[in-house]
Amino acid sequence: MNAAKRAEIFRRLQAIDPHPTTELEYSTPFELLVAVVLSAQATDKGVNLATRRLFPLANTPQKILALGEEGLRDTVKTIGLYQSKAKHIIQACKILIDQYGGEVPATREALEKLPGVGRKTANVILNVAFGQPTIAVDTHIFRVANRTGLAPGKTPLEVEKKLLKVVPKQYLQHAHHWLILHGRYTCTARKPKCRECVIADLCDYKDKNV
Length: 210
Description:
Elements lengths: L2 H14 L12 H10 L5 H14 L3 H16 L5 H19 L7 H5 L6 H10 L10 H10 L7 H11 L5 H14 L25
């Protein structure tokens, strides 16, 4: 795929959704951190249902520590892997209080040292909370990047590095949201909705459903 095609893909995705954002509900960087940790192998809809119960009770590291691991588990038990996620969040809260004055750090190195935070989670926080032009490659972005020919790669990290190279700079800030939403609602895993797709004519996928 050439640079002109890539630029046109993002021009069209921007045209239909000029200001994309995460579907996770949050109001502070800390709330976003908690929501993203909870979102591993869970849907944003399911996470939002859990955080609507949690955040009115506890939405700072101090309040979550006061709630305790058992109280946190009980509040988010509708989420898959809730026991290990609750443990990670409690551990992360202690680190945030001890090392960062209760604030979420804005560097990848610091974020990835927090329990439950990997590269993808760090990228989401850096992009959404702090406005950095990172790309968090989830299953949707991995599929879209490979299927369309936008940035093929064998691993999420390979796809991430390629996207950072080939996405035009003016689109980098919102690129991962456009690609996630496109993969979630149009370029779906089993039956991509090629007839409804605004970039179908630019896509390299050979088995288009048209």
